[in-house]
Amino acid sequence: MASAWWPCLILALLSGLAASGFPRSPSRPLGKRSLPEGVVNGIEVYSTKISCKVTSRFAHNVVTTRAVNRADTAKEVSFDVELPKTAFITNFTLTIDGVTYPGNVKEKEVAKKQYEKAVSQGKTAGLVKASGRKLEKFTVSVNVAAGSKVTFELTYEELLKRHKGKYEMYLKVQPKQLVKHFEIEADIFEPQGISTLDAEASFITNDLLGSALTKSFSGRKGRVSFKPSMDQQRSCPTCTDSLLNGDFIITYDVNRESPANVQIVNGYFVHFFAPQGLPVVPKNVVFVIDVSGSMHGRKMEQVRFSLRLGLIFPVKEEDYLNFILFSGDVTTWKDTLVQATPENIEEARTFVKNIDDQGMTNINDGLLRGISMLNKAREEHSVSERSTSIVIMLTDGDPNVGESRPEKIQENVRNAIGGKFPLYNLGFGNNLNYNFLESMALENHGLARRIYEDSDANLQLQGFYEEVANPLLTGVKVEYPENAIQDLTQSAYQHFYDGSEIVVAGRLLDEDMNNFKADVKGHGAINDLTFTEEVDMKEMEKALKEQDYIFGNYIERLWAYLTIEQLLEKRKNAHGEEKENLTAQALDLSLKYHFVTPLTSMVVTKPEDNEDQTAIADKPGEDTEASYQPPQTPYYYVDGDPHFIIQVPQRDDAICFNVDEDPGTVLRLIQDPITGLTVNGQIIGEKGGNSDSKTRKTYFGKLGIASAHMDFRMEVTPEKIILWSGAAQSTFSWLDTVTVTQDGLSVTINRKKNMVVSFGDGVTFVVVLHQVWKKHPVHQDFLGFYVVDSHRMSAQTHGLLGQFFHPFDFKVSDIHPGSDPTKPDATMVVKNHRLTVTRGSQKDYRKDASVGTKVACWFVHNNGQGLIDGVHSDYIVPNLF
């Protein structure tokens, strides 16, 4: 793969997507010698077991995979696990030929320093993070000698939440090859008794599932076992590939003779509360709907569908509702809330059907109008005193007109609601400011949901509405005897919805007390209610002795899990000393209980060619999705069709322009005679047929990076990366995850994502791989090119990108509506030229090549003429080097 001067292999840990652990083997073919069935490229995965132990909703999962290298040479084995985003990794061990290498949880900064120290000593490592919709992905790779065995074991824990009347355990199954001993085993113990238990798999027929799956429950215990034979794993009777590829879901619920249940073990308690059979509290629902131009197309279709669902699931005749539409202005369906009579619902359906998109995004005024309407209805007694109010906002983006500062909008909304009712934010698409939507919802006792533009978006919306359709209690407070408890988790809730569950945990001050009492108070549809649960400690101790499936001090760990989760949630809206205190508390608990959280990392050290190598497993957040984290410095890049984006730091703004050249043209992007660095790019795109420059799509399909001082060249295409050091050549593919180093140079390829090229203390380039779909205009993959630390280039740098590394400024005036109402035009003075520009946005794909982050910029027309020095033809060169 690489010649001797590229000595570095890496250990990559991906903390990011469900629950299964399966090696993937290298793609090189083996020799002709016969190997046992189930061996792929020399690696036999002879055992994979997922062991789940659930006690009182708290799940402890262990994923173990064992493999042996049956090839004649060393092979790389990678262990992939997808686990729920709500789970915390608690342990990972790697065992090679009987020697175990454990993972240790450390503070994130400490782990990062250990990682960087290993890298600086030439003990190379990889740090990769990935995040999906429901799942996070953990991956570790290791070289295994010929004939050697390796065992991977990952442990994670989570509190199973109750949704729509059931607890769900979600396991991702994807072994990628036949496994001799494959098993999923789940043991469940619930002191309240199990009422229902089921399991299903998305990847196998019911007939086949029936013979491989067993499930049973009786009293407090339940068990699920899935053990497909190798024949049952085959995708067809004569195939050698596995059909096990999809979701394995276990669902169950418990008996509810009493609405509440309290359990106590070793001085820690947990209190579950889920009443049934109560009348539904009437609702006053205001839908605040983004109808700006960016909602055009698929997102607006989803919004219309969402509102039609909203008129079906959560709305009953005793409810009241209204629609607030916002773009640049705010309009309403009705002046006040109207009752959800059949006639009004039919009129609302017609209104929803005709909603159209146009204009800018005034989130602030839209929300304040809706909140004001709810407050006024309450003040004027036009709605039931026992009803509850809800605001549901549907949007896809950032505010860009009126009050557009997120922190000020949050303040305005918080003051207007005053803690009286919740705000739910539904965010559509991938390029929205989700942190803003989530933060605003959380501080107003609601939640945010990202609605992905996938085929199941309608199911996502349906799931949300079903959750909030039926509030049974409002103003719920859980109370305990004074001076009897400490370290209590959240005990007050705005709503209790049918099918959900409130969970409170804490510590007892007196572990020797004989009785324990808990009260839950709330406002119902008809009257105020108090539910009292009294616990006899001796009876509790007797019942808990029957727990065959108990693991450690499960209630203490459940308390720690819930406390950390809630501290991290509060931290999102905290500032200054409050945020520091919340961070310190969450960090202390994460370290004490060995949880990988956003504040900690798991450090794994393993042997590699007689040297230790270190890597880090991180838990990503909602918007953390890639291996390369862009620094907060000026950015200059070219990506897409091809869009050049130039940041002007002193303006906190950016300028963008396109180029239009024929496919095959090579353009000089950067040339620095002092550092000796040159970067050229070759255009690909539609050939023949379409010569209209306004519609023709072109991209960069090949990049050449060269250093004259180091006698180094690199050719990058969407298929491969070729490196030359003098006459020595090395070739890599985008399927590799590898770091290569030599004096003053580091090249890191992140599999199928991006490549980072760093020239010692000098500049860093990032090349992003775009893998496109069949209907894409160019029908082929292409590249994006980004420059980091451009200030390390000399003042003599030039080229289509390089010329902008020198300080320059611009001034914008006369902003006025353009031909597109969502994109205003303006006059820009730059480089002594007066240009007409249009406000728009481009994408920064450093974080995620498939989605990208929106970057606002002023678009310069006519291929950047007046902005760039000279004309485009001045930058055309004969070849890459």
From TrEMBL:
Domain VIT intervals: 29-158
Annotated stretches, region: Disordered:
609-629
Query: One Pfam family of this protein, by short name?
Result: ITI_HC_C
Q: Is Transmembrane among the key words of this record?
A: no
Q: Where is the VWFA domain?
A: 284-468
Q: Which UniProt keywords apply?
A: Glycoprotein, Protease inhibitor, Proteoglycan, Secreted, Serine protease inhibitor, Signal
**Superkingdom of source:** Eukaryota
Q: For this UniProt entry, which residues form the secretion signal?
A: 1-20
Q: Family, per the entry?
A: Belongs to the ITIH family.
- Stored PANTHER family: INTER-ALPHA-TRYPSIN INHIBITOR HEAVY CHAIN FAMILY MEMBER, INTER-ALPHA-TRYPSIN INHIBITOR HEAVY CHAIN H3
Query: What role does it play?
Result: May act as a carrier of hyaluronan in serum or as a binding protein between hyaluronan and other matrix protein, including those on cell surfaces in tissues to regulate the localization, synthesis and degradation of hyaluronan which are essential to cells undergoing biological processes.
Protein known as: Inter-alpha-trypsin inhibitor heavy chain H3
Q: Which gene encodes it?
A: ITIH3
